[in-house]
Amino acid sequence: MSEKVGRGAQGFDFTRLDEIDDEVDDDTAAWSCVRDNITGLIWESKTDTFTSTLHSNSQSYSWYQSDGEEGFDGDTNGVNTSCYINNCNTKDYIAEVNSQGLCNFRDWRLPTHNELLSILHPGQSAAPMIDTDYFPHTIDALTAPVWYWTQDASADGFSNQRAQNAWAIDFASGNDNFLNKSTAGRVRLVRAWR
């Protein structure tokens, strides 16, 4: 087993990054991104509920991609979505984050199902099921799921030959499921480091 580059619970190996992609110490109070030194992915870091910023963990979005490759595009403003941009959907959120150049990058995207599962921490004894030392502002609802969208459409839920659902992962329980694309879900963006 190779030595960890950064730190993290159990087999995780994370490094905190500031707004220009420089590594920062673990005692730093704020960071913008987290690099997974095992997978080579860089993850968006969220801010807490009480901040009115683009990256606040309280915002929710409907799944939307207008490229037509995944069947039903989704909704530009789904049911019970709430955000600080005009249209509360994944496509517009990605565009806004990329226009601002989070951590000096402009190629942010929704993670695949497997990518999002890679930061799930099933060894946690309580919600949220993620290493909260590196992802501290992951919402941990005690009575309801907290779904985070993946980019993957689901084969379940077809209507008029078009996929109505997409996969999401609940970081409160660690479960995955498909949700209707119009449903409000959270977003944690990712990009490739290597």
Automatic annotation (TrEMBL):
<feature type="domain" description="Lcl C-terminal">
    <location>
        <begin position="33"/>
        <end position="191"/>
    </location>
</feature>
<dbReference type="Pfam" id="PF07603">
    <property type="entry name" value="Lcl_C"/>
</dbReference>
<dbReference type="InterPro" id="IPR011460">
    <property type="entry name" value="Lcl_C"/>
</dbReference>
<protein>
    <recommendedName>
        <fullName>Lcl C-terminal domain-containing protein</fullName>
    </recommendedName>
</protein>
